[in-house]
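Listing S7. Sequence submitted for prediction.
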Amino acid sequence: FLSLQYLYGLARAARPEADVMLEGFREQARSGREDRALWAEVCLPAAEGMLAHARGDWERCVGRLGAALPRIWETGGSHAQRDLFEQIWLDALIRAGRWVAAQQALERRRAFEPEAVPANRALAGVYLELGLPKESLAAQARVRAALAAL
């Protein structure tokens, strides 16, 4: 779990160690270790997705990190820590212009916290991209109401 976060930090800093670390993920995925499947099916796709995000390859991030997300819990970390991966994937969806998928992901997040400012701000923009101005205005109103309540 922490290795994925370290990899992302190295990649965001444009450090060459990120590629070395990714190769380590690949070696683990090819190894004869008992947990090889976890490395191959979850850790490696997540690492490739995180690296892609850090380098601005939104489509690759969507595909690789998205493939790992349903099982990301197997890598460890708390719910809040694992949420980082979903937020990065969601950012890639938006940057890739995957509006329907972004809307669906944001609505799932909003189901748990209906007045969440970040989700509603993002939804306002996504709704506009989808040609849904009334929904965008409603999301903006939720943001204003939440901020006014602070």
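Caption to Listing S7: primary sequence and predicted structure tokens for the chain studied. The chain has eight helices and no strands. The helical segments are 2-12, 17-30, 36-54, 58-68, 79-95, 99-112, 117-129, 133-148.
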